[in-house]
Amino acid sequence: MSSPAQVQAECWLITIEKSDGPSMQKAILFWAGGLATLAGGAWVVCPQGQCAVPELDRMGLALAHAGRGDLLDTWMPVLTWAGSLLVLVPLIALAALVLARGGRGREAGFLVLSLVGASAFSHLAKLAVERPRPDLFAAWTTMPADWSYPSAHAMQVTAVALGCAFVFAQRRAKWGVVLAGIVLVVGLSRLYLQVHFPSDVAAGVIASAFWVAGLYAWMRAR
After folding, report:
1. What element of type H or E holds 77?
2. Residue 57 · residue 157 · CB < 8 Å
3. DSSP codes joined into one string, 29-42
4. Which has the closest alpha carbon to 160: 146, 142, 180?
5. Which residues of the chain have pLDDT under 50?
6. How far apart are CA 139 and CA 215, in angstroms?
7. 10 Å Cβ neighbour count for 119?
8. How many CA atoms lie within 13 A of 77 on its CB side?
9. What is the rounded distance in angstroms from the CA atom of residue 214 to the CA atom of residue 114?
10. Which of 78, 114, 131, 168: disulfide with 148, CB 3.0–4.6 Å?
11. What is the pLDDT of residue 174?
12. Taking the mean position of all CA atoms in its chain, how far away is CA 24?
């Protein structure tokens, strides 16, 4: 007689076999890539728990500081809000409502999970790595109270932009360019304001892209 654990494993294998195997494999690979990105980045910036500032981070923040100007000083604190949950949550809620009412409930759930997952993973990684915020130059805004690595703004805006690209813009290249531009502007704003290192932003964007791509593959497999 099979044990409960064996029965559960057999049921799990049957479920996998009935699903789209290649898509599930892609999802797992994408998610593994996201975890590897966060873990590898943490090892680079905080080896053995001792956080340091790599030379590329110093150069990036010095370049952002050197590029200061009145126009950017005015707009960067505004544009950076595009990566905040205060903006993204209502936006995704509205998009999900429109999709659900149009009979596209699965895609609505995909958008919500894209943002929720990216935000959750970013804050869990912050707690695990505990990298201090930059202090090489004066910040041009109120310094956030949480840890630096990875950038939650970068992860959140990437998740929303890529999720919207999958749902709305697969055949609209211009919208894809616009969404990529928004991610770029938010990432640069975090450096300009001196609240994140370049490695925080880069790791956040890459890890979030892996998360959303895996989620999309998983949705297609179901």
Report:
1. helix 70-79
2. no
3. HHHHHHHHHHHHHH
4. 180
5. 5-17
6. 35
7. 19
8. 12
9. 10
10. 131
11. 84
12. 21
Q: How far is CA 177 from CA 95, 170, 204, in A?
A: 19, 11, 19
CA distance 158 to 119: 10
Collapsing DSSP to helix, strand or coil, 82 comes out as: helix
Contact 30/217 with Cβ under 8 angstroms? yes
Q: What angle do CA 113, 118, 123 make, to 5 degrees?
A: 130
- H or E element that contains 208: helix 198-221
| Strand, coil or helix: 3 | coil
- Residue type for position 210: F
The answer to whether 182 and 157 are in contact (CB under 8 A) is yes
| Whole-number Å distance between alpha carbons of 73 and 139 | 11
Residue at 91: amino acid letter: L
Longest Cα–Cα distance in the chain? 76
Please write the tens of the pLDDT for every residue from 13-52.
Answer: 444 445 556 778 999 999 999 999 999 999 999 998 899 9
| DSSP per-residue letters across 93-143 | HHHHHHHHHTT-HHHHHHHHHHHHHHHHHHHHHHHHH-PPPP-SS--SSPP
Dihedral over Cα of 160, 162, 166, 171: its sign: positive
Q: Which residues contact 132 (CB under 8 A, 6 or more apart)?
A: 51, 147, 148
